[in-house]
Amino acid sequence: MLSTIHDPRSIPPPRRLLPRTLALLAVLLASIVLAVGLGSVFIPPSEVLGALWRGLLSLGSGAELSGNDIIVWQIRLPRVVMGLIVGACLSVCGAAFQGVFRNPLADPYLLGVASGGALGATVGIVAGWPRSSIPLSALAFALAAVGTTLALSREGRRFPPTRLILAGVVVGSVLSAFTTFLILRGEDRARQVLAYTLGDLGFSGWRDVVTVLPYAVIGCGVLMALARALDTLQLGDLTARSLGVPVERLRLLVVLAASAATAAAVAYVGIIGFVGLVVPHLVRLVWGAGHRVLLPVSAVAGAALLVLADLLSRTTILSQVGVVTTLLGGPFFLWLLARGRSD
Amino acid sequence: MTEIQDIQIQVAQTPEPQTAEPQSLEHQTLEARALHVRAGTFAAVQDVNATFPAGVFTAVIGPNGAGKSTLLRALLGLSTPERGEVRLLGRRLADWPRAARAQTLAYLAQGEGLPDTAQVRDVVALGRGAGAWRWGLIPTRPWTDADELAVTDALTRTDTLRFEHRRVSELSGGERQRVSLARALASQPRFLLLDEPTNHLDLAYALDVVRYVRCEVAGGLGVVAVLHDLNLAARADALLLLHEGRVLAAGSPAEVLTPALLHTAYGIQAQVLRHEGRLVVLPQG
């Protein structure tokens, strides 16, 4: 009897999933080494690893970096780390949104975060604010957009999912209209706005990483703590309530945590499409639907994917990471759909 | 196993100091007292008095809009009654802590959704409930062998242990419904409330569900099931016939399934026959 008992936190059986998880971690590591190594100056993997190691040591000792170590630590690594954080955030938030709305089409931008961020950045760019204040403007607008969506969908103390989604669509459309209007008024800066909207990790420095990190850690941390409650919610609102889950509280917490993390990501790197939509679906196919596994694995997969997409964007003509993810993500999503049909 | 049952019994017998009525009877029922429930502006349930004893299979029947599902939700504490009250094991339902209530009352919703890519055993494990978690959201105690045993037990009782490692998407409709039933039984509840558990099931599967539920009733579980099919409902121990939010009749199938009552409730002419000891409702026309 006892021999058949296993920990439900690692279902499907850990024997089968461990190799896959290790493989995914290997992909993550490889993508980091590759992304740091490739560029105008090629740095071989062994040297990348050496530079990373020396840099970590020097953080402790305060020693000066030299040669390629400077390229690794001051130019390439912040961009890669930002990619890791944003990729992880978008995927975890996408998975959580799909779970909390029980809607496979949900993505982190569902409630207007992206349109809010875009409007905030556009206002900043068109008004000619200094470069450093643009993310702050984007962040403020993104959070305000989600706040508006929540306020519009509120029904007493409840936030019914359908109303949330509809309010999110409306808020998104209205804000996009404002953005378009501003772009047309400030024509000469249209290209700059477009570049932001399509997502770009190129400007990321350590200071940006440090700003985004707390939102990402707290947001994703809250979502992962709610994993088991999200699992229960998959049985339906009424069933989850009958099992003792306060569904309204859960939904509000997920929306707040995911929006904070997404807003920070959007503010600093722009709108990167499809990662938050596709990665959770892909992970679910292999690792199953349990959020205790789905959320952390999505974080790893999303991080690796975005670093690789960013690498493609800087080494090919595609030039914007958002273009790469959408070009790859769209067809991939169609493949997922076709696959589901043939089953 | 015995440990869990002991804990449940302790929860169940938390005495209510003001109760003057005899405990032995009080402690075995789920009860609606002068219950009024509104759905929007519509009085969906009006002045319903009903007692659902443990170890009895009660079917709630009535035409569409009679207030069956609304009554079930009020009995679960999922909606707040406008007037009247629900008493679970002699204690006002509103006074039950969320944890204990979630463990004592199980619910199988109409057309309960199951996540397609989840494994059967995981789904059933969700039935162990969130009641005692911090804020109802974050598990505060580790998963124990007792939990595992309860899950295995629920899988065994519903004959779903065979495919515990399969994904939900690989199951037939009848198998899914048994998994949902196992999920509901996993908390080892005292009462199980089912909302049209046989909806959209082929007759063989519908009979299956009733058969598994019957076994649990024999083991002392109190069951309240909303059923549409009167011939399935005829297999229950007791019937509660609702009409326009009120109780039209309550009693044994023979007392409730009469041509006169069926005409009042459903507006149909029906014959009620007895075949091999069981009632059969034959609508005319």
Secondary-structure content class of chain A: mainly alpha
- Overall mean pLDDT of chain B: 85
CATH architecture level-2 label of chain A = Orthogonal Bundle
**What is the CATH first-level class name of chain A?**
Mainly Alpha
Please state the second-level CATH architecture of one domain in chain B: 3-Layer(aba) Sandwich
Q: Tell me, what's the shape of chain A?
A: globular
User: What is the CATH superfamily label of one domain in chain B?
Assistant: P-loop containing nucleotide triphosphate hydrolases
Question: What is the gyration radius of chain B calculated from CA atoms?
Answer: 19 Å
> What's the helical proportion of residues of chain B?
25-40%
β-strand percent of chain B reads 25-35%
Query: According to CATH, what is the topology of one domain in chain B?
Result: Rossmann fold
Topology as H/E string of chain B? Answer: HHEEEHEEHEHHHEHEHEEHHEE
Q: Please, what is the CATH homologous superfamily of chain A?
A: ABC transporter involved in vitamin B12 uptake, BtuC
Task: Give a count of the beta strands of chain A, DSSP E runs of length 2 or more.
Answer: 0
Give the integer mean of the pLDDT values of chain A: 85
The largest interface is: A-B, 38 and 46 residues
